[in-house]
Every structure is written in C-alpha cells, then in structure tokens.
Amino acid sequence: MSDDLICVGAIGGAYGVHGEVRIKSFCAQPEDIETYSPLTTEDGKRSFALAIVRPMKNGFVVRIADVASKEQADALKGTQLFARRDQLPHLPDDEFYYTDLVGLDVYDTGGGSLGRVKSVQNHGASDLLEVHAPGATATVLLPFTKAAVPTVDLGARRIVADPPEGLF
Predict the structure, then answer these.
(1) For strand 158-161 and strand 151-153, is the pairing parallel, antiparallel, or unpaired?
(2) Is the sign of the CA dihedral 48, 51, 53, 56 positive or negative?
(3) Which of 39, 66, 71, 129 is the most buried (most CB within 10 A)?
(4) Per-residue pLDDT reduced to its tens digit, 11-39
C-alpha cells in the first residue's frame, strides 16, 4: 500500500434496490468519511464520491455517484476505500494511523527483539498490536496502551514495549 493512502472504510454491499450501499467507517469520527470524499480504491483506478443518506447500525447508508442499481451496489461489496494522507487531519504526537504501525519492529525495554507488527486489531475494547515474533508460527496480541507500549518512534520505525509478564 502506498504511504500516501489510508484505508478509511469499506463497502458492505447493497442497501435496498435503488443503488444505495452500506459503508463501514474506520474513522475516529465515523461520519467524517464523507468529508474525505472522493475516495479511491487502493490502486487508484476507481474513485467514489460519497453522500451519507442516514446512519445505520455499525455504519452508514450511502449514495455513490454513478451507482443506480442493487446489482451495481452489490458488485462493490468488500471494496476498501482510501483517502490521501493530506486529506486527513494531523494527529497529536501520541496518536497514530494503523497503517503507520504495521511493519514496525518491536523491542522490549532491554533492547531485545520481540518481533514485527503484522496488523492492528480492535475488537471493541482497545487496540491490540498483532506481533509476529522471529521464528514463531503464532502471533502475540500486545495491548496498545501507554503502559505496554511506552514508545513509538515512527522515524526509526520501531516500538519499545513493556509487555505484561508472560505474554512473550
């Protein structure tokens, strides 16, 4: 993925028969997804101008220009929506876009390597870093809290972690 693109949402499929689609927003303020429009696919080949029609459970009902039928809307199911980094707000020093954390090396407070961030998960309670340890087949879910991850250095592409006892 390009460093200039950030995934801000995904299309869940058709809503009704008039071409409206269901959108899941990954934005901190979910309704902000509309302000970043037009959004693109990751390869930049398709562009989508969004207009939120109404909120719904876990997302929004959205109208997309040039999508007029249920079949056209269903064809977009699963499409991830990307915004250019310069469209998004600048974050405070202690906040990060998920995409910036993926691929960072993770070290313990003593300088020992714990692995590399494979993904960032959020199942409702808080963020978790999925860390793949060198030589391991399974990954470890590290709580992304100030206590467990005191340092994130994007410039050096590294994270210093103080994981709970027995996690690694």
Answers:
(1) antiparallel
(2) positive
(3) 129
(4) 999 999 999 999 999 888 899 999 998 99
Q: Which domain holds residue 113?
A: 98-161
Contact by Cβ (8 Å): 145, 128:
no
- Beta carbons of 76 and 40 less than 8 angstroms apart: no
Evaluate whether residue 119 is within a structural domain: yes
Q: Read off the pLDDT of residues 118-150 as tens digits, 9 standing for 90 and up.
A: 999 887 778 999 999 888 888 999 999 999 999
pLDDT (tens digit per residue) in 64-82: 998 999 999 999 999 999 9
Q: What is the DSSP letter of 17?
A: S
- Indicate whether 166 belongs to any domain: no
Q: Which of 135, 128, 130 is nearest to 118 (CA)?
A: 130
